[in-house]
């Protein structure tokens, strides 16, 4: 009888463990994808079929009438809500990245007592719930006359301690030699930051942009406070399907499907940069 090679025997536990990891990851992937499938399946189900007790995982046919009714409903104005959410999310993302990058750069480069105090305050801010700032932010927004405006939706929410701290951590790893070489060429700190540091921090910028965009697009409580008819966002529109008389499940799932498409698209486009940015920032 031929003897088994020693390396084959010793590798068996490794192969078994690797196979178990794949199985576990596959099961977890199915669990994470299950809510998306339920949303997709119910979005193309009529109201009559939805309340039926004969619920099928694989429907016989897809009913597009619910989606058509959503987009054709002028009172609901779903396309307008999507535009409002897009303006809010893009505007908040751009301003948050702009402000937080400069703040993070300053905290990473200037080592003095003032910078230390600001860093500690930033970390303390991370521990406080975001809703804590809503009352003073709402008072400020009301006094400035920003209710039912894009300024009211975007400006009070553009300051992010998380984004500032994330940029600060990543910029600590940025090679100082590049900045010193730029300074020797006569560039001031402002020019060095925008022409040297920013182009070489695309991964971190993309990571913060992705996280900020998803958070802004999915925000509900702040738009609920300041948005009115002219700036109603997607999340507020979806809440109209849940009333005291009941929940319109077919319309709610169809609207949810429309709402997650931009978020999934942004995540798929920037996921590589998201992972890279989290790794270089020390937040993984």
UniProtKB/TrEMBL annotation:
It is found in: Cell membrane. Pfam families: BPD_transp_1. It is a multi-pass membrane protein. The chain crosses the membrane at residues 20-40, 81-105, 117-138, 150-167, 205-225, 252-270. Residues 82-270 form the ABC transmembrane type-1 domain. One of its GO terms (biological process) is transmembrane transport. SUPFAM superfamilies: MetI-like. One of its GO terms (cellular component) is plasma membrane. Keywords: Cell membrane, Membrane, Transmembrane, Transmembrane helix, Transport. Belongs to the binding-protein-dependent transport system permease family. PANTHER family: ABC TRANSPORTER PERMEASE PROTEIN MG189-RELATED (PTHR43744:SF12), ABC TRANSPORTER PERMEASE PROTEIN MG189-RELATED-RELATED (PTHR43744). This is Sugar ABC transporter permease.
């Amino acid at each position: 009888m031929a003897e088994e090679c020693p390396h084959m025997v010793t590798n068996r536990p490794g192969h078994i463990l690797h196979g178990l990891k794949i199985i576990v990851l596959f099961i977890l992937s199915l669990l994470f994808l299950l809510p998306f499938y339920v949303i997709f399946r119910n979005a193309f189900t009529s109201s009559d079929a939805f309340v039926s007790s004969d619920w099928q995982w694989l429907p016989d046919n897809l009913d597009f009438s619910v989606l058509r009714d959503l987009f054709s409903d002028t009172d609901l104005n779903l396309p307008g809500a999507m535009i409002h959410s897009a303006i809010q999310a893009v505007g908040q993302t751009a301003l948050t990245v702009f402000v937080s990058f400069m703040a993070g750069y300053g905290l990473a480069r200037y080592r003095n007592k003032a910078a230390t105090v600001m860093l500690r305050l930033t970390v303390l801010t991370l521990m406080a719930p975001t809703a804590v700032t809503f009352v003073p932010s709402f008072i400020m927004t009301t006094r400035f006359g920003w209710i039912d405006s894009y300024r009211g939706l975007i400006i009070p929410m553009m300051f992010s301690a998380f984004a500032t701290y994330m940029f600060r951590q990543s910029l600590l790893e940025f090679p100082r030699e590049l900045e010193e070489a730029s300074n020797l060429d006569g560039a001031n700190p402002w020019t060095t930051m925008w022409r040297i540091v920013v182009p070489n921090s695309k991964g971190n910028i993309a990571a913060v942009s992705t996280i900020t965009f998803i958070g802004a697009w999915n925000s509900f409580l702040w738009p609920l406070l300041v948005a009115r008819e002219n700036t109603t966002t997607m999340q507020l529109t979806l809440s109209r399907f849940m009333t005291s008389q009941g929940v319109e499940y077919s319309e709610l799932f169809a609207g949810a499907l429309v709402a997650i498409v931009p978020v999934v698209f942004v995540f798929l486009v920037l996921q590589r940069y998201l992972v890279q940015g989290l790794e270089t920032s020390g937040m993984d």
